[in-house]
């Protein structure tokens, strides 16, 4: 007995002597589809893989642009950039990181299965100057190329070719040669995937050969579990099983605030939620007005903008954590303008008058499409909007549906089968141009512009400004052009912006984590106390 | 007998075909899978191309025909969401659902049958009445709520049991089991109880009702008149005669335990087939939905068959007719 005790004590002493192992366990509402960094261009997937893979540049916790695999860059002339690559970086299998890997990854991004084709297309050629210098050519001048590259991850050329993963994993082929990279990784990032069962559990450990020895985080192991049910996710945090879960439903905030040892982090999300209106059909699909389209009349759109009390929606539906706005982009986005970001005034009387001037003193009926599982409290917001519009006589017939059916209905594939809809947008590049090009530019099936402009708002003047913005490399002039474009949009009431929704992370007090406004959990920003 | 079994198996193919056809007719209303498979920057053209390559633009009958053609060769396609072959996914998930279902069914029967017999024999006792009241609560409370309540009490407040997942599992020749580890067994307790409660209350009420019926029958009165012990009467005569109709229902219930483990599995994030299926619905993962529905149809057919065969075992009269 005594001997046993001594051995136990010895083991304890030995354990204390070792470097402290800190395990961080967390849950999200879903899992990534694959580990292939070029397989799906979606924020959670790329954010998750950003712990394992790295791009040339990155965003820090405050969404400021930072160097990562590139140490410095220079716009040598409008369409040429020179990037200096970081030396002494190794992939998880020990292979060194060089210019060849960058060129390989760029080409891989263009393969048929890739969902990152849009990113690869921003570069027309990469020349290797030496092992750690590349010269990049862009098809048109692009002032924000370094921002465009944050989510474009670099893979190891040798490893990919050895394992027949030279092409991006396609969602189509089951046993295709390219699926190796879907279940294995070899990045340069601080964490290695140790084991993975899709939908069940993924475990990570710190990569001891990571180039950045001054990593802030003290986490050595990470356990990730997807938990799809909201109540189960919250319970897993409250029961002490997990260190962090997200998203936490807003209605659960009081429970977390009342519980010991946990807290809610709810900074504003970079995502802006807004309402769009059919402005191209001569007769609305879902309305009592026949023979004409009332939403083509600016006075009607303006009436709607003034009829909705965004402040009250924020207080009642979002527990005051949202950020009501008059712009399609949030303050974290490059190109934001505070003056334009102010919401339209809430003024029901003015709204009624505008509606009467437009020839609808008694209002009209209007169908509205709304997702019910996509954005924070999306259906509740739509119901609140319907109530406010009813006060000025616009009777909303609300069609709230799951996101799969919703997007199939309102997207261009069904000819934008909607009259009035809700959408949220996160500019993936964290730059205004992405929102302008996708949401505000006139819809063009061939050009790819205005793909998410479901209501086909169109202003040739803004289209011209967007082209100029894309080609302008002087940041001050560019900002001025962005302001002009958003000013025109706001005067036109092309959209009805609602708010930036809040992020909602539930965290144990023993964990210190910096919350990125694009809802990305970067393990580099996690500290265990 | 052999002919009977073969005939039933042949009929099961028909059942599965019909299930698949109905499923395919409904898939078009579930939404568009492509939006979940690509990011927001993917162009319309690329989306359309993907939709085309997946055959989503074909008519329902063409899609159905292609599915059956592949299914006959054992190919159920690839999950749109997890990008793995559907058969692999179902094989990975089946053990979790199977272990949960079996434990629940055993719980439901092991507790339900004695309770049912007791309440039938001692109709007026206080214990019987409280059993009946409890069973009413059990049958009325939605599974989801029971699960959440258990999590709240035993997971969040008392912190005795893990609130989600399957714990550590041991892999034995492709079959993963949670029976061999402490965390695996702990994780099983709450989901198994949640899933068992409804079935259990059903069994209690069914056994009780049938038993009361049988106890009034002439042959039971005759047995009493013969002076047999009440133990013999109750268990050898009455309970045995109760079992025939009860078996049919219980057989179907075991099918539904497997099929409707969906809710329990999603409340406890139990990595079984039900959870796979519900996530497939949310993401319009057509290959997974189709294969799952076929599998469930097959399970139901097989269970029905087993129940029919068991009739022969329990009821000698059928054996006579069968000859």
What does this molecule look like?
The complex is a heterodimer of chains A (529) and B (323). Chain A has 529 residues and is of the alpha+beta class. Chain A is 29% helix and 22% strand. Chain A has two domains: 7-226 and 504-528, D-Maltodextrin-Binding Protein, domain 2; 269-502, Roll (Dipeptide-binding Protein, domain 3). Chain A has helices at residues 2-17, 43-49, 99-108, 117-120, 145-148, 157-162, 180-183, 230-238, 253-258, 298-307, 310-317, 348-357, 378-391, 403-410, 432-440, 460-471, 475-492; strands at 23-28, 57-59, 65-67, 70-77, 80-85, 125-130, 133-137, 191-197, 201-206, 221-226, 244-246, 262-265, 268-277, 323-324, 364-371, 394-401, 420-425, 495-502, 505-508, 511-513, 526-528. In chain A, the strands form six sheets. Chain A has a seven-stranded mixed β-sheet. In chain A, strands 4-5-7-6 form a four-stranded antiparallel β-sheet, with helices on one face. Chain A has a four-stranded antiparallel β-sheet with strand order 14-18-13-17, with helices on both faces. In chain A, a hairpin with a 3-residue loop joins strand 8 and strand 9 (201-206). In chain A, helix 10 (298-307) packs antiparallel against helix 12, helix 15 (432-440) runs antiparallel to helix 16 (460-471) and helix 15 (432-440) packs parallel to helix 17 (475-492). Chain A is globular, with a radius of gyration of 25 Å. Chain A starts with a helix and ends with a strand. With 323 residues, chain B is mainly α. The interface between A and B is large, with 56 and 55 residues. Chain B: This is ABC transporter permease. Chain B: It is found in: Cell membrane. Chain B: Residues 94-311 form the ABC transmembrane type-1 domain.
In short:
Chain A: Belongs to the bacterial solute-binding protein 5 family. The complex is a heterodimer of chains A (529) and B (323). Chain A contains 17 helices and 21 strands.
Provide the structure class of chain A.
alpha+beta
Mean pLDDT value of chain A: 92
Distance between the termini of chain B: 9 Å
How many H/I helical runs of chain A?
17
Report the CATH C-level class of the largest domain in chain A: Alpha Beta
Structural class by sheet pairing and helices of chain B: mainly alpha
How would you sum up the global shape of chain A?
A: globular
């Amino acid at each position: 007995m005594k001997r046993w005790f001594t051995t136990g004590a010895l083991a304890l002493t030995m354990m204390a002597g070792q470097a402290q192992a800190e395990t961080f366990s967390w849950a999200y509402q879903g899992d990534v589809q694959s580990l292939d960094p070029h397989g799906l261009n979606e924020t959670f997937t790329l954010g998750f893989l950003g712990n394992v893979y790295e791009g040339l540049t990155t965003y820090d916790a405050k969404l400021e642009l930072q160097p990562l695999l590139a140490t410095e860059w220079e716009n040598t002339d409008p369409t040429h950039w020179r990037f200096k690559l970081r030396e002494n970086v190794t992939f998880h299998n020990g292979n060194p990181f060089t210019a060849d890997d960058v060129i390989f990854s760029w080409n891989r991004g263009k393969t048929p299965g890739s969902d990152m084709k849009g990113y690869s297309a921003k570069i027309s050629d990469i020349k290797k100057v030496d092992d750690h210098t590349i010269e990049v050519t862009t098809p048109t001048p692009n002032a924000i190329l370094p921002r465009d590259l944050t989510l474009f991850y670099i893979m190891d050329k040798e490893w990919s070719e050895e394992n027949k993963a030279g092409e991006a994993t396609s969602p189509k082929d089951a046993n295709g040669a390219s699926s190796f990279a879907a279940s294995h990784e070899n990045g340069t990032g601080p964490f290695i995937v140790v084991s993975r069962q899709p939908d069940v559990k993924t475990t990570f450990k710190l990569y001891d050969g990571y180039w950045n020895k001054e990593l802030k985080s003290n986490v050595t192991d990470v356990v990730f579990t997807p938990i799809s049910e909201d109540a189960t996710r919250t319970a897993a945090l409250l029961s002490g099983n997990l260190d962090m879960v997200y998203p936490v439903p807003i209605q659960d905030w009081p429970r977390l605030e009342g519980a010991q040892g946990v807290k809610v982090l709810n900074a504003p999300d970079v995502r802006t939620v807004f309402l769009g209106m059919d402005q191209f059909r001569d007769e609305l699909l879902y309305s009592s007005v026949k023979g004409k389209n009332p939403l083509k009349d600016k006075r009607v759109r303006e009436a709607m903008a003034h009829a909705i009390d965004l402040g009250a929606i924020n207080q009642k539906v979002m527990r005051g954590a949202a950020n009501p706005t008059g712009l399609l982009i949030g303050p974290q986005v490059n190109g934001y303008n505070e003056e334009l970001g102010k919401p339209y005034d809430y003024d029901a009387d003015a709204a009624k008058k505008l509606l009467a001037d437009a020839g609808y003193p008694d209002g009209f009926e209007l169908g509205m499409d709304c997702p019910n599982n996509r954005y924070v409290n999306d259906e509740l917001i739509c119901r609140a909007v319907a109530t406010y519009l009813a006060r000025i006589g616009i009777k909303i017939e609300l069609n709230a549906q799951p996101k799969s059916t919703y997007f199939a209905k309102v997207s261009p594939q069904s000819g934008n089968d909607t009259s009035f809809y809700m959408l949220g947008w996160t500019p993936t590049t964290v730059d205004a141009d992405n929102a302008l090009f996708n949401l505000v530019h006139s819809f063009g099936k061939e050009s790819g512009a205005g793909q998410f402009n479901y209501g086909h708002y169109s202003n040739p003047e803004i289209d011209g400004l967007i082209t100029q913005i894309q080609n302008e490399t002087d940041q001050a002039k560019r900002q001025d052009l962005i302001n002009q474009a958003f000013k025109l949009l706001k005067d036109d009431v092309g959209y009805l912006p609602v708010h930036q929704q809040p992020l909602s992370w539930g965290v144990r007090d023993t964990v210190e984590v910096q919350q990125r406004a694009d809802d990305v959990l970067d393990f580099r920003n996690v500290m265990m106390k | 007998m052999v002919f009977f079994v073969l005939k039933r198996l042949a009929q099961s193919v028909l059942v599965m075909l019909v299930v698949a056809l109905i499923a395919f007719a409904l898939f078009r209303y579930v939404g568009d899978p492509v939006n979940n498979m690509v990011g927001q920057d993917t162009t319309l053209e690329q989306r359309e191309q993907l939709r085309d390559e997946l055959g989503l633009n074909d008519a329902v009958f063409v899609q159905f025909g292609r599915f059956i053609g592949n299914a006959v060769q054992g190919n159920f396609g690839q999950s749109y969401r997890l990008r793995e072959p559907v058969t692999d996914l179902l094989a990975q998930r089946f053990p979790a659902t199977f272990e949960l279902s079996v434990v629940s069914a055993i719980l439901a029967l092991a507790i339900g049958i004695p309770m049912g017999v007791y309440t039938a024999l001692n109709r007026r006792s206080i214990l019987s009445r409280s059993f009946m009241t409890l069973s009413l609560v059990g049958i009325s409370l939605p599974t989801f709520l029971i699960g959440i309540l258990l999590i709240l009490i035993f997971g969040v407040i008392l912190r005795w049991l893990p609130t989600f997942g399957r714990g550590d599992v041991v892999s034995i020749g492709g079959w993963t089991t949670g029976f061999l580890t402490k965390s695996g067994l702990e994780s099983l307790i709450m989901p198994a109880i949640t899933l068992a409660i409804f079935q259990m209350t059903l069994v209690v009420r069914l056994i009780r009702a049938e038993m009361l019926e049988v106890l009034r029958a002439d042959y039971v009165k005759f047995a009493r008149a013969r002076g047999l012990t009440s133990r013999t009467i109750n268990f050898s005569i009455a309970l045995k005669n109760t079992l025939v109709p009860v078996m049919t229902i219980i057989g179907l219930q075991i099918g539904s335990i497997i099929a409707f483990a969906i809710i329990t599995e999603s409340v406890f994030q139990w990595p079984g087939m039900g959870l796979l299926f519900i996530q497939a619905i949310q993401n319009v993962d057509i290959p997974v939905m189709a294969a799952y529905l076929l599998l469930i149809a097959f399970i139901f057919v097989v269970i029905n068959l087993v129940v029919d065969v068991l009739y022969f075992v329990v009821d000698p009269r059928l054996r006579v007719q069968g000859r």
